[in-house]
Design goal:
By secondary structure, the protein is α+β, with helices and mostly antiparallel strands. It is about 60% helix and about 20% strand. The chain has four helices and three strands; from the N terminus they run ααααβββ. It has a three-stranded antiparallel sheet with strand order 1-2-3.
Length: about 100
């Protein structure tokens, strides 16, 4: 670590080195906790599962059939009308798709 080399070469006094080192260790620990929290977050797993459901539905829908109402209903959480010319589709995985008509 650069900080350790600066201290070892005598370019930094002990108090400043320990202060900076302690600050960096605190930051690293906070980031590790945040990373763990994100990785363990159940909603993240839910989003992945819902995305897989979307992909599965789209794979099973034939282009020859045209509009598949059952698939559509299972993928869309809700639709928000922004204007006469714009809709936002809220998918079950949290993804938002804006469509101009």
């Amino acid at each position: 670590m650069l900080l350790h080399r600066l201290y070892g070469a005598g370019h930094m006094d002990a108090a400043h080195y320990y202060e900076r080192s302690q600050g960096l260790n605190t930051l690293v620990n906070a980031l590790r906790r945040e990373r763990s929290r994100i990785l363990e977050d159940e909603s993240h797993d839910d989003s992945i599962e819902k995305t897989e459901q979307i992909l599965e539905c789209l794979r099973n829908t034939s282009d020859d059939v045209g509009f598949d109402a059952i698939c559509f209903d299972s993928l869309i959480d809700h639709i928000k009308v922004l204007s006469q010319n714009e809709l936002v589709f809220h998918l079950i995985n949290g993804l938002l798709l804006t469509e101009r008509i």
